[in-house]
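Action item from last meeting closed. Structure (236 res):
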């Protein structure tokens, strides 16, 4: 256990960290920005996670549709995501392509974000749901804190053309669209096991959760992309 007492953490940056079972007493949180998954976050006796969730759904009503529990719900969610991403891509194409390789605040570039989404759909749909042991493309990009695995590409510094990355993305989107297009409640209630070398390696993992992960990745990373495009447009 790590313990901090009477420490000045002003200006600290914490990325990709697991903060579970944390207790903070007598602290001052001023001008703090938090972005991540919140569950059972008690602030001055109030669990703020449901409040934040409700406020985000109020601001973005389609967000509430990203946790479906039926085949029709998944089909609607995926259709929403593809439509929203079309708008984001159109916005990105108005910028010089060189800017789409630029990082904003040390985050992924726009093109790196697309490469990561390609990785996510390959991992959770092609590998987990469809059973392809090694569905990877050389430009797929795992998350930065991933441990790394033999046989899975991970070239963060590559600068491929946007259209090359989009060609892979269209194939992956088509695969997800086909999976959810024929999705039945029986399939949703089933589990999958993948123990072949690589990632993910999971036993009896719910199909529904595999698809929820993809929806969440697509939703959240589009918001990040929109945020960063706003900053990049100042340099165009």
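Sequence:
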């Amino acid at each position: 256990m790590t313990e901090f007492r009477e420490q000045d953490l002003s200006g600290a940056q914490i990325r990709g960290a697991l903060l579970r079972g944390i207790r903070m007493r007598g602290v001052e949180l001023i001008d703090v920005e938090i972005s991540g998954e919140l569950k059972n976050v008690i602030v001055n006796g109030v669990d703020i996670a449901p409040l934040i969730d409700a406020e985000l759904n109020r601001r973005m009503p389609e967000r509430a549709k990203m946790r479906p529990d039926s085949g029709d719900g998944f089909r609607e969610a995926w259709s929403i995501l593809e439509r929203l991403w079309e708008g984001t891509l159109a916005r990105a194409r108005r910028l010089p392509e060189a800017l789409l390789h630029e990082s904003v605040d040390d985050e992924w570039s726009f093109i790196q974000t697309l490469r990561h989404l390609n990785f996510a759909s390959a991992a959770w749909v092609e590998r987990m749901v469809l059973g392809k042991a090694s569905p990877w493309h050389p430009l797929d990009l795992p998350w930065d804190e991933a441990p790394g695995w033999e046989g899975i590409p991970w070239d963060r510094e590559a600068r491929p053309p946007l259209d090359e990355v989009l060609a892979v993305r269209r194939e992956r989107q088509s695969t997800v669209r086909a999976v959810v297009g024929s999705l039945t409640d029986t399939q949703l209630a089933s589990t999958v096991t993948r123990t072949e070398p690589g990632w993910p390696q999971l036993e009896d993992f719910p199909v529904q959760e595999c698809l929820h992960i993809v929806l969440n990745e697509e939703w959240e990373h589009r918001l990040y992309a929109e945020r960063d495009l706003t900053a990049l447009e100042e340099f165009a």
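Note appended to the action item: The first helix runs from residue 49 to 59.
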